[in-house]
Design brief:
Number of strands of chain A: 3
Shape of chain A: globular
Strand order of the largest sheet of chain A: 2-3
Oligomer: homodimer
Structural class of chain A: mainly alpha
Number of helices of chain A: 31
Helix content of chain A: 55-70%
Chain lengths: 719, 719
Amino acid sequence: MDALGNAASAARRARTMLLLVWTLLNAVSGLKADDGGMVEELVTEKEAEESHRQDSVNLLTFISLLTLTILTIWLFKHRRVRFLHETGLAMIYGLLVGVILRYGIPATSYHNKTPPSCSLKEGPSSTLLLNISGKFFEYTLKGEINFREIHNVEQNDMLRKVTFDPEVFFNILLPPIIFHAGYSLKKRHFFRNLGSIITYAFLGTAISCFVIGNLMYGVVKLMRAVGQLTEKFYYTDCLFFGAIISATDPVTVLAIFNELHADGDLYALLFGESVMNDAVAIVLSSSIVAYQPAGANTHMFDASAFFKSVGIFLGIFSGSFVMGAATGVVTALVTKFTKLHCFPLLETALFFLMSWSTFLLAEACGFTGVVAVLFCGITQAHYTSNNLSEESTKRTKQLFEVLHFLAENFIFSYMGLALFTFQKHIFSPIFIIGAFVAIFIGRALNIYPLSFLLNLGRRDKIRGNFQHMMMFAGLRGAMAFALAIRDTATSARQMMFTTTLLIVFFTVWVFGGGTTPMLSWLHISYRYWNCKRFQDERRCHGKWEYSRVGVDPDQDLQPSGDSFQVLQGDGNQDEGQSKTKQESAWLFRLWYTFDHNYLKPILTHSGPPLTSTLPSYCGPLASCLTSPRAYENHEQLRDPDTDLIHNDADLTFTFGDTAITTNGASASRADATGGLGWSTNGKRSGSTSEEALERELDSREQELLSRGTRLVFPMEDHI
Amino acid sequence: MDALGNAASAARRARTMLLLVWTLLNAVSGLKADDGGMVEELVTEKEAEESHRQDSVNLLTFISLLTLTILTIWLFKHRRVRFLHETGLAMIYGLLVGVILRYGIPATSYHNKTPPSCSLKEGPSSTLLLNISGKFFEYTLKGEINFREIHNVEQNDMLRKVTFDPEVFFNILLPPIIFHAGYSLKKRHFFRNLGSIITYAFLGTAISCFVIGNLMYGVVKLMRAVGQLTEKFYYTDCLFFGAIISATDPVTVLAIFNELHADGDLYALLFGESVMNDAVAIVLSSSIVAYQPAGANTHMFDASAFFKSVGIFLGIFSGSFVMGAATGVVTALVTKFTKLHCFPLLETALFFLMSWSTFLLAEACGFTGVVAVLFCGITQAHYTSNNLSEESTKRTKQLFEVLHFLAENFIFSYMGLALFTFQKHIFSPIFIIGAFVAIFIGRALNIYPLSFLLNLGRRDKIRGNFQHMMMFAGLRGAMAFALAIRDTATSARQMMFTTTLLIVFFTVWVFGGGTTPMLSWLHISYRYWNCKRFQDERRCHGKWEYSRVGVDPDQDLQPSGDSFQVLQGDGNQDEGQSKTKQESAWLFRLWYTFDHNYLKPILTHSGPPLTSTLPSYCGPLASCLTSPRAYENHEQLRDPDTDLIHNDADLTFTFGDTAITTNGASASRADATGGLGWSTNGKRSGSTSEEALERELDSREQELLSRGTRLVFPMEDHI
């Protein structure tokens, strides 16, 4: 049954198509133009029109839902309501409409007659030919139906239509969300915490998956013992549930973090973890599915099959990674070596197409498109965005922002709707309670032990309150839902789907809504800018004050500049570091130097000219690959006045190696930099404060790097 | 047969769904999640994967095509190549790939066995049940197939897949193109020539449709006489062909006009005509289809059915118009009365959703979505865009620009591909030659007689060379193709499709490529800015020179300020006008005053405050409806120094009532205005020169209007 379900899932995957246009082209079951010829349809025109209208009305429902959500979000933002995030709101509206659709509208049907039937002895095939007095008609398999449903095949049509194909989520709605996550990644904090993020994402998700899987297997056994479960529910099903429910999505929490300017490192940890663990969960769940047929009838644990599964996991993951990175690199090269930046429209279109083609390329090669898109996004942000014209940088960002916004809210309002319109829910109280307990245990066994291990190696420890916050921020969202809805063929899967839906509701509403109180309660610092003018127009270039709420300044300001110091070659001043730490630092340094000296100059207009980083015998090649703009940039960077930044306090606890108290230092340094001129700020006033800050920090970093080769430290300016 | 074809077309229309996501949901023939239960599929996993990959590869083909097109377009723009437009280029690449797909790749198939067949006595229905040892499977009709094709049902699968469903064009690719056309309409020139545009679009397209239809009926009779035609080809088919081929699409010509800054009025005439006649052609063709069943077996001309058809035409057209305008108005109201402009992302998303919902709403009500989207675009540009934040204005514009660009190039490269991959081409030399002759005659009988009639009423005549240019610019493009591919069930329709494709190729390549030589040959003025700096950054705010190529300045500068003069109440100075002219001016004046005094203030933040335009007893209501920003704007407009513009020469021959020679006047006026200050220019440097100019002209117009009430004419400044 499971093998069949699996095959059915694969078939669905293939049949429904992977994306936007193509899904249309191929999947459309109707009459294709090229079926052409003398197609005779007995469906009357009126019926067809009716169905067409019904579809329009259905989609209008969703659009109205989204419109309503947008208006309410505005109201909430306007009134500074923080207890309910837009995604939670979208779900509530979805629920309401779901209730109306389910109970408010009588299940009308415009076509009540039982369709003709015919008998065959062989099993069903995907295509069937019907011979009617010498004429042949081609039919495609839609699925098996229950005998009791035969007489209302077309009844409840509306509900069926509203509950649409799950592959839509995977192939249309998730890619823009995931790409945007990768593209809008705040590089500095992310790369600084890369090791921890990867640990949480890979090891943590694996732990969570196995813990939840095993606990749920216990729950399933209990259910069977109590007589609550008669259907099949294998161990691999439990593991699968563990995998899908391990994909965290703290979108609500992060939105509030963003608004409150909560700690950058905590933000990076949470965001990075959730982005990466989506990728891990999707590959993990498909490895588990791939593992199933090997486990054949037993569906029990089997060492060789397990390692095969791990191999599959690594293969798919690294393949997708390479695919995504490669597309990003190609785009970077194309945008570098053409003067496409004179035509922002062409540039944006190219960028969009290349990013999209990653998805296709990965799917065509049998890898995971969504994962490839994530890494493509990161690569594009790291390299390509340096080559784009200023206008295109904005355009692409905005384009993906809009797509991401729409897709996300669509998924969440769909979730609300699905609770009532999905017709195969299995509400099993024991399973649901078990799952709730399991995800907390799973999350706890992910965060606390790993944090302990990581703290052994980290110089700026992940403090207890950060760990509690990470534990608390383990919300489930779009990815868990998309994975759960992907296959609901067996009753086990239906039970999982229902449970996932409830977990998403609960975590988004309760944990999402509780973020602000939790931050205060855990004494996690967040600063709100006291400078009022800054909020509207970023005209506030003078001194800033910021308030830190309930935090010990010394603790918060532990020096954390390791990555940078290491890069400068004097990271090994601190002898108390463990070997692991040094190795990872060495690896990281190697990569960073390579990236900065070779990759960036080759792929982008920024970075030092290759002529200065490559050995002299590579001269001609180097000057051929270095763009004229790189020289300009390089010259500009040598000028100490060009690229100074606001956020010096932040810089202090990033790059500074000595612990200084915040207030004194930040104020005085703000004065010092404030006096040096703000030549670049005028240009950037269009962007939002967040990204401007980020970009300035990045450019500061660049500047420091190029100055670092002369060993001029920012501190020296100050002293 | 035709009735059946018609029903089939309607069924296809319904089945394939109208848009993006929804098409997916519903049309997807595969296993829906909620078909759920115990779906058993015999399609093996491997097969499914293979098909999935094949699809990815197919779509990658299109993406690569588009990428290649973009890169070549860049090269062409870079090198200033004008003989081949991007759309022509996309077609060439499409052709090449089509040849490769058709002849280069052996028709492999992963599934060669003949599918099982079963017999029934009754006719085919849309749904079929298959009973296999007690289990029921649901099948959907895909279409009839020829007996000889039974053994390779799945062969040539690739070609079939590449040639995808025509409804995709209608429901996904056309709406953004049409919306963008409406949204980017250059209002001033468009409204100034509104009467002429409507005449060409409605009357002209009808003339063209009937002329072509009748000529083609002659050709068909000839073919039958020669023995070239054995299949059925009714008179209504000929009329249908006339309707679809009457949709002009001078995208190539207009791109060159834009680049060369060719005459604004000619641009407006061509652009306006092509936009409106797309709408007319689509409604006309569907009215003709609706007329067919009434004509039953005769398919001959029948007065009552004809008037019914006209009624349908008017009903659909006005319904779609109202629908589109209504959505635009609602969006304007929502954006006015909320402070959504603080959150550009929400604003953009709302704008996008509302514009999209127009399409759905119209389709749900049985009107034409594409037409509704056009008028929605115009309304959004006229009202809503005044309420959007500066960032959203840009965002929405850019979003639709990118969508439009991608959709258009996709259609054109698909056209190239279709010439080889579409499998039911019927190349009939007589029909093709006849069609080429007919479209020229049709176009000529549209342009010349109507121009003559219009010139009776117009003060600035449409000169002979303009008429020749309009004749020459009668290219066929995306809309003709989309209408032709929509139904290719009968051999008549297949013949039309092939012919349409060839006409598109010919006109885009030959006429599109010949635009620049033709402009010179016809002595139509185009100016290229001599101010070099202007081209890069719009930093050039001083005096401008522009060169006019081969034109008599007096002739070009005929006073054409009627609309404005009439508005001021002294338009009837000129006694030589015909009555029609005065009536239309009266209507136009009425509308303009109403729009300016009531609609704009109610719907947007601009225009005079309602408190000043509404009678005093409406005071409370007026002040409630007027936004605070309107007062601010109003104050600003009273200041004569705020909103002066560059393009005074243009203004002269728009608003000036006395004929003055260009050079002297423009130079001196440019001096005069140049001295008054350019307070607004700094803000606008981000936009392209064209739109900035347009916007400035519009604001100038507004200013003049508000000043006009005090009867302060621009001339007075100068004197």
